[in-house]
Design a protein that fits this description.
- The structure holds 2 protein chains of 2 kinds.
- Chain A is built from 2 helices and 6 strands; from the N terminus they run αβαβββββ.
- By secondary structure, chain A is an alpha/beta fold.
- Chain A has a domain of 89 residues: Nucleic acid-binding proteins (OB fold (Dihydrolipoamide Acetyltransferase, E2P)), CATH 2.40.50.140.
- Chain B is globular and about 120 Å long.
- In chain B, strands 5, 6, 7, 14, 15 and 16 form a 6-stranded antiparallel beta sheet that branches. In chain B, strands 3, 4, 17, 18 and 28 form a 5-stranded antiparallel beta sheet that branches.
- Chain B has 6 domains: 195 residues, Four Helix Bundle (Hemerythrin (Met), subunit A) (Up-down Bundle); 131 residues; 69 residues; 118 residues, no CATH class; 151 residues, no CATH class; 105 residues, no CATH class.
- The chains are: A alpha/beta, B alpha+beta.
- Chains A and B meet through helix 1 and strand 6 of A and helix 3, helix 16, helix 19, helix 20 and strand 28 of B.
Chain lengths: 135, 936
C-alpha cells in the first residue's frame, strides 16, 4: 500500500462525508400547506408570482418589506412577506424560490431566489406581427 | 420556385453554409486520414489528414470572417446579426456581438483550437502528430456539426449562424417571407434587436475570447493524453504537454477572473463571485487542469508516478469543459437554477458529444483488441439506450461502465510504481495538493450539478418514498422529491468545505517548492520556511485585529494565514534558493499571485461591511434590532449619515440607456453642540450645559456636557434633534449608480464604485424610479386616499400636512362658507408646515339634501390639494383624498452600499498569477528544448 493510495482513499472518505452532509443540510422543498402545518420551521417554497394581485412595496413606510401573492406548485395562492427591498425584476420573474417560515399565520421569507429572463435566455424572436408598411 | 429577394445577401447565406459544410467534411477527412496514419506511416493517409485539416481550418476561419463581415455591414436579414446587433452599438460592442449567441461561441472556440493546433504543428510534432491531430479532427468535426443547422423532421442538428430571418422556424410560412421586397417594406429590418444591454460592457469585449482560448487550451493536453494511451507510450506526451497545460492554467485563470470583474462592475449581485453555475463550471476545469499540470511535472521528474491520476486529471479538465458547455447551453439547469438557461434545441447533440468524448477516453484507457471492442460496444449500446429507452438509467449504467473501465485500466494496464515515495519529497506534496484541488473541484461540481442529479433520482423516486415510509428518514423523503438545489447560504454550501480545502492546498504551496524531488532531509526545509511563516503570522495578527474575526471564523483566519505564508515563502524562495534568477521564478510568482487572489477574495468577502444598514434606527427601537434592513432610503435633498460618510441624493438624469442617480458623499466631521441645545438620545431628552465637540459615544459626553430633562416642555420637545456624533463635512466625491433601461430583459441596476487603495465602496440602487410618475397637464399626480383623525399628519413632498382639529359648522358660520341653512357641514382644520410659511386652512364635508357636495381645497403655490369624501362620526375620521403636484414631489431611492476591504489584492494577484504562469510556460519550453538537444 503506497502512501499515494492512502492519500486517495482518505480523500474519497472525506468527500463522501461532505457530500452526505450536503444532502442533509439543504432546506427541504415543500408547498405552502406543509409550511403552514409546521410553523416555525424553515422551508423552501417554490412557485410563481400571482400577477392578479399587486406587489406591495412602499419604501417610505418600510424599506425592507415586500408583500406579494405567490402560487405554489400545488396551485395554492398565498400572500407572503419578504423581509427585503423589492427585488429588481420581480414582476418579470418566471419562478420564485422562497426561503422562510410561518410566523403567526404569515409566511415570512428572509431569502428569495428568482428565475428571471437573464443573459442566458434568448427569447424567441417571432416576426409574426411584422407587416409591410402601407404604401 | 425561387424568389429573387431584393437587397438580400442571399449569396452570403449560401457561402456561409458552404464553409461550415466544408469544415465538417474536411474535419471528417482529417480524422480518418490521421487515424489511419497512427497505424503506419503512409504518405496517402498523411496527405488526406493534413489537407483535411487545412480545408477545415479554411472553412472555420472563412465562416468567422464572413460572420464578421455581416456584422460590420449590418446585414439584418440574418437572424444572428439581427438578434445581437443594432445601429447604436459602438465598434467595441460590434466585436462582442460576434459571441453574443451560442453559434458565435462555438465559432470562436473552434478558431482558438485551430490556432493552437497550427502552433503545435509548427513545433516538430514528430510521432505525436497523427494521434493528436486525429483527436483534434474528431473534436472539431463534432463542434462544427453544432453549426450545420440541418433539420430531420422535427429534429434539429446544429444551429445555423447564417440563418436568414425569413427562414427561421418561427417565421416559416408567414406571408411576408414570400415577398421579394420584404427588407424594404418591413420596418423591423431597418435595425436589429441589439446585444443584450447587460453584455454591453467593455469586459464583454475581452472576457469571452479569453475564456474560450482557455477552454481551447485544455484540448491540447487532452489530445496528447489520448495519444499516449493510443500509442501505449506514457512518457513522451507528458513532457510535451507541460507547457500547454500551464498555458491553459494562465489563460483560463485570467478568463475566469475577468468574468468576476465584469460581474463586479456590471451586475448588481453585490460582489465578484456568486458561486453561480456559469462561474462554477469554468472554475472547475481550471482547478482540475492545475492539478493535472502539477502531476505532469511530477511525472517528468519521477516517471511512472501516479500515472492513472495524471491521465484522469488531464482528461477530466477537457471533459469538464465540455460538461460545462453542456450544462449552460443545453437548458438542463432550467428547472432548478436561478438563471433560466435556454434550451437551444441541440441538447441531444451536446449530450452525445459529451458522452462520446468520455467514452472515447475510457475506451482508449483499455488494452487494444477484444477488451476495447467489448467496452466500446457496451458504451455504444448504452448510448443508444439513452436515446430510445430510459435516459436516466442508461446514463447511470454508462457512468458505471466508464468507472469500471478506469479501474480496470488502473489495475491492469497503466504502469504503477510500488516503490514507496518518501514523505518529505516535492512529488508527494505536489500530488497531495493536486488531489486536494481535485476534491475541491468535485465538491463544486456536485453542488452545480444538483439539477442534473435530480434527473437521476427521478426513476428511484418510488423506492425512496417507500424507504421514507418504512424508516421515517427525512433524507429519503428529500431524495424522493428529487428537487435538490444548492442552498442560498454560501457559508454552509460552499465555504464550509472549500475554505478548509483551500487552506490545505495553499499551505502545501508554501513549503513544497523548498523540497527537492527524491529524498530530503527534513530539518533544513523547516528552517528555510520558518522566517516566512513568522512574517505571515506577524502580518495576520494586525489583520485579524483590524477586521475583527469571530471564533467560528477560525478556518477563515487559518486560510488567510496560509495565503500570506504561501506568498511570503514563495517570494523568499526566489531570494533564498533562486537567488533572484527571474527566468526560473515563474512557478513561485504564480503561487504568490494565487495566494493573493484567495487572500483578497476571502478577506473582502468575509469582512464586507454593508454600510447602508440603518444602525441608528435599530438603537432607537430596540424591539426592531433583528431588522433585516440592509438598504438605505434616501430622499432627494436629505443629507444623512451612512457609515463613515454623509450622503445626499442630488438628482436623477437619463444618459443613453441609463438612468443615473447622483449621490454626493461628504466627509464626517465631529458635531459640535452649544450651550442650551436640546437633543434626544434613545428616547430621552438632554440639554447641553457647555459648548463642546462631540465624541463618538454619547455616554462619554453625558456627564461633562449634558443634563437630563426629566419633564421637558413643549418647546424643548419640538426643538429636540436626535444626537449625532458627526455632521456633514466637506464634499468628498459623487457616485452615480445606474439603472439600465432594458426593455427586453427588464430594467437592471448597475453599481458604481469608489476605489481606494485598501478598499472599495460599492453602491447600487435597490429601488428607484427611472421616470417621473404619471401626472395630468397641470402636474397633479394621482390622488391618494387617507383616513385622517385629529392630530394625524402626512408627509407631502417637503411639507407636513396635519389635521389640527374638527368642528361642526354652526348656523352663523354657514354664510361665510357660502353654505345654505339646510346644509349639514363638518369642518376639518388643517395646517401645512415646512417648505414655506405655516398655512392654516379649512376643508369642509358638506351634505345637502342627502347629497355630498365636493369641496376641493387647492393650495396651488404649495403644490397640495385635498378633498374630503367621507366622514365617519363614530370614529371622527375623515376619508380624505390628497393630491401632490410634481413641483413639490421629492424623488427617493433605496440604495445599498458595501465596503469591500482589500479587494485590490484580488485583482493584483490575478495579474501576478497570469504573468507567473506564462513565465512558467516559457521556462518549461526551454527545459524541453534543452532535453531534446541533450537526447539528440
Amino acid at each position: 500500500m503506497s502512501r499515494l493510495n492512502i492519500v486517495v482513499i482518505l480523500m474519497v472518505a472525506v468527500l463522501m462525508g461532505t457530500l452526505f452532509s450536503v444532502f442533509t443540510a439543504n432546506s427541504e422543498s415543500v408547498v405552502f400547506a406543509r409550511a403552514f402545518a409546521e410553523p416555525g420551521i424553515e422551508f423552501k417554497v417554490s412557485g410563481t408570482l400571482d400577477t392578479d394581485h399587486p406587489v406591495m412595496y412602499d419604501p417610505m413606510v418600510e424599506v425592507a418589506e415586500t408583500r406579494f401573492h405567490m402560487r405554489d406548485k400545488d396551485g395554492a395562492l398565498q400572500e407572503v412577506v419578504l423581509r427585503k427591498a423589492k427585488p429588481t425584476g420581480l414582476e418579470q420573474s418566471e419562478s420564485i424560490d422562497l426561503y422562510g417560515k410561518v410566523v403567526d399565520g404569515q409566511f415570512i421569507a428572509t431569502e428569495m431566489l428568482m428565475k428571471c429572463p437573464s443573459k442566458y435566455n434568448e427569447e424567441s424572436h417571432s416576426l409574426a406581427e411584422a407587416k409591410p408598411e402601407a404604401g | 420556385m425561387d424568389i429573387a429577394y431584393t437587397g438580400e445577401w442571399t449569396w452570403a447565406a449560401s457561402l456561409g453554409r458552404l464553409l461550415i459544410a466544408l469544415a465538417f467534411a474536411g474535419g471528417l477527412a482529417s480524422t480518418i486520414g490521421y487515424t489511419r496514419l497512427v497505424r503506419g506511416d503512409d504518405p496517402h493517409w498523411k496527405a488526406l489528414g493534413r489537407w483535411g485539416f487545412r480545408v477545415q481550418a479554411a472553412g472555420i476561419f472563412g465562416a468567422s470572417a464572413l460572420l464578421y463581415l455581416l456584422i460590420f455591414s449590418h446585414r439584418y436579414e440574418f437572424e444572428y446579426v439581427w438578434k445581437h446587433l443594432n445601429d447604436a452599438m459602438p465598434f467595441g460592442f460590434m466585436l462582442s456581438s460576434f459571441w453574443g449567441g451560442q453559434e458565435g461561441g462555438f465559432l470562436i472556440w473552434m478558431c482558438w483550437i485551430l490556432v493552437l493546433a497550427i502552433v503545435f504543428l509548427r513545433r516538430q510534432p514528430g510521432k505525436l502528430e497523427a494521434p493528436v491531430m486525429a483527436v483534434h479532427g474528431g473534436i472539431l468535426t463534432a463542434l462544427s456539426s453544432m453549426l450545420l443547422g440541418l433539420w430531420f423532421g422535427d429534429f434539429q442538428f446544429g444551429l445555423d449562424p447564417f440563418l436568414l430571418l425569413r427562414e427561421a422556424p418561427q417565421n416559416a410560412g408567414l406571408p411576408w417571407t414570400l415577398n421579394p421586397d420584404y427588407l424594404q417594406l418591413i420596418p423591423q429590418f431597418a435595425d436589429g434587436q441589439g446585444l443584450n444591454p447587460l453584455l454591453q460592457n467593455y469586459w464583454m469585449v475581452i472576457h469571452p475570447p479569453t475564456l474560450f482560448l482557455g477552454f481551447a487550451s485544455t484540448l491540447m493536453p487532452f489530445a496528447m493524453a489520448l495519444s499516449g494511451l493510443w500509442l501505449r507510450d506514457h512518457k513522451e506526451w507528458m513532457g510535451r504537454a507541460i507547457p500547454w497545460a500551464f498555458f491553459g492554467v494562465a489563460i483560463l485563470g485570467a478568463g475566469i477572473l475577468m468574468g468576476g470583474a465584469w460581474a463586479y462592475e456590471a451586475l448588481s449581485f453585490g460582489g465578484f463571485w456568486a458561486w453561480d453555475p456559469v462561474e462554477n463550471s469554468s472554475l472547475v476545469p481550471w482547478l482540475v487542469l492545475v492539478a493535472g499540470a502539477h502531476l505532469l511535472l511530477i511525472n517528468r521528474a519521477k516517471p511512472g508516478t501516479a500515472v492513472t491520476a495524471t491521465y484522469l486529471m488531464v482528461g477530466l479538465s477537457f471533459l469538464l469543459v465540455v460538461y460545462s458547455t453542456f450544462l449552460t447551453k443545453s437548458g438542463i439547469l432550467g428547472d432548478t437554477s436561478v438563471h433560466s438557461f435556454v434550451d437551444s434545441g441541440i441538447l441531444p447533440q451536446l449530450l452525445a458529444f459529451l458522452l462520446g468524448c468520455c467514452a472515447l477516453f475510457c475506451t482508449l484507457l483499455l488494452a487494444p483488441g477484444r477488451e476495447r471492442v467489448l467496452f466500446g460496444a457496451l458504451q455504444a449500446l448504452l448510448m443508444v439506450g439513452i436515446a430510445v429507452l430510459d435516459p436516466a438509467l442508461c446514463t447511470l449504467g454508462l457512468l458505471l461502465v466508464m468507472t469500471m473501465a478506469v479501474l480496470r485500466a488502473h489495475l491492469r494496464h497503466l504502469p504503477r510504481t510500488d516503490a514507496e515515495s518518501p514523505l518529505w519529497t516535492r512529488e508527494f506534496w505536489m500530488f497531495v495538493g493536486g488531489m486536494l484541488m481535485f476534491a475541491s473541484a468535485v465538491h463544486i461540481t456536485f453542488q452545480t450539478s444538483l439539477p442534473v442529479l435530480n434527473h437521476f433520482l427521478a426513476p428511484f423516486s418510488g423506492w425512496f418514498e417507500q424507504l421514507h415510509q418504512s424508516t421515517g428518514s427525512a433524507l429519503a423523503r428529500k431524495l424522493a422529491t428529487h428537487d435538490l438545489a444548492p442552498g442560498t447560504d454560501f457559508d454552509a454550501t460552499y465555504h464550509a468545505i472549500q475554505v478548509p480545502l483551500a487552506f490545505l492546498f495553499i499551505t502545501i504551496t508554501a513549503f513544497t517548492q523548498f523540497l527537492r524531488y527524491g529524498r530530503n532531509p527534513g530539518k533544513p526545509v523547516f528552517m528555510q520556511t520558518l522566517r516566512s511563516l513568522l512574517a505571515a503570522v506577524a502580518v495576520t495578527l494586525p489583520v485579524v485585529l483590524t477586521y475583527g474575526f469571530a471564533a467560528w471564523e477560525a478556518p477563515r483566519v487559518a486560510l488567510l494565514l496560509a495565503c500570506l505564508w504561501s506568498a511570503f515563502a514563495n517570494a523568499d524562495y526566489i531570494i533564498q534558493v533562486l537567488k533572484g534568477r527571474w527566468d526560473h521564478a515563474g512557478a513561485s510568482i504564480a503561487h504568490i499571485g494565487f495566494a493573493l487572489v484567495i487572500f483578497g477574495a476571502v478577506l473582502s468577502n468575509a469582512k464586507k461591511d454593508i454600510v447602508s444598514q440603518n444602525r441608528f434606527g435599530d438603537l432607537a427601537m430596540l424591539n426592531e434590532s433583528l431588522s433585516n434592513e440592509e438598504d438605505l432610503l434616501l430622499l432627494e435633498g436629505d443629507t444623512i449619515a451612512m457609515g463613515p460618510y454623509y450622503v445626499s441624493y442630488r438628482e436623477r438624469r437619463q444618459e443613453g440607456i441609463h438612468a443615473k442617480f447622483a449621490v454626493d458623499y461628504f466627509e464626517t466631521l465631529p458635531a459640535s453642540y452649544a450651550e442650551g441645545e436640546v437633543v434626544s438620545n434613545e428616547g430621552f431628552l438632554f440639554q447641553c450645559i457647555g459648548d463642546h465637540t462631540a465624541s463618538p459615544d454619547f455616554t462619554r459626553d453625558l456627564e461633562a456636557h449634558w443634563t437630563f430633562l426629566p419633564i421637558p416642555n413643549d418647546r424643548q420637545r419640538k426643538e429636540a434633534k436626535p444626537w449625532s456624533a458627526g455632521r456633514p463635512g466637506p464634499f468628498a466625491f459623487t457616485l452615480e449608480p445606474r439603472i439600465q433601461l432594458n426593455e427586453r430583459m427588464g430594467n437592471a441596476p448597475e453599481p458604481d464604485t469608489k476605489r481606494y487603495l485598501n478598499k472599495d465602496l460599492y453602491t447600487h440602487i435597490k429601488w428607484g424610479r427611472v421616470s417621473d410618475p404619471d401626472a395630468d397637464e397641470d402636474g397633479w399626480m394621482d390622488g391618494r386616499k387617507h383616513d385622517l383623525m385629529r392630530r394625524d399628519s402626512l408627509v407631502i413632498g417637503r411639507s407636513i400636512l396635519a389635521l389640527d382639529s374638527i368642528s361642526a359648522v354652526t348656523l352663523e358660520q354657514k354664510p361665510a362658507f357660502g353654505l345654505l341653512d339646510k346644509d349639514l357641514a363638518v369642518a376639518a382644520h388643517f395646517r401645512l408646515t415646512g417648505n414655506g410659511p405655516d398655512t392654516n386652512f379649512t376643508a369642509l364635508y358638506i351634505v345637502r339634501d342627502s347629497l355630498l357636495i365636493p369641496d376641493m381645497v387647492t393650495l396651488e403655490d404649495r403644490g397640495v390639494k385635498l378633498r374630503i369624501d367621507g366622514f365617519r362620526p363614530g370614529e371622527a375620521t375623515f376619508e380624505t383624498v390628497v393630491w401632490e403636484n410634481l413641483s413639490i414631489r421629492r424623488d427617493f431611492i433605496v440604495m445599498q452600499a458595501i465596503v469591500f476591504p482589500q479587494i485590490n489584492l484580488l485583482w493584483l494577484g490575478c495579474l501576478i498569477m497570469t504573468a507567473g504562469a506564462l513565465m512558467a510556460v516559457r521556462q518549461q519550453r526551454r527545459v524541453r528544448k534543452r532535453n531534446t538537444k541533450a537526447a539528440a
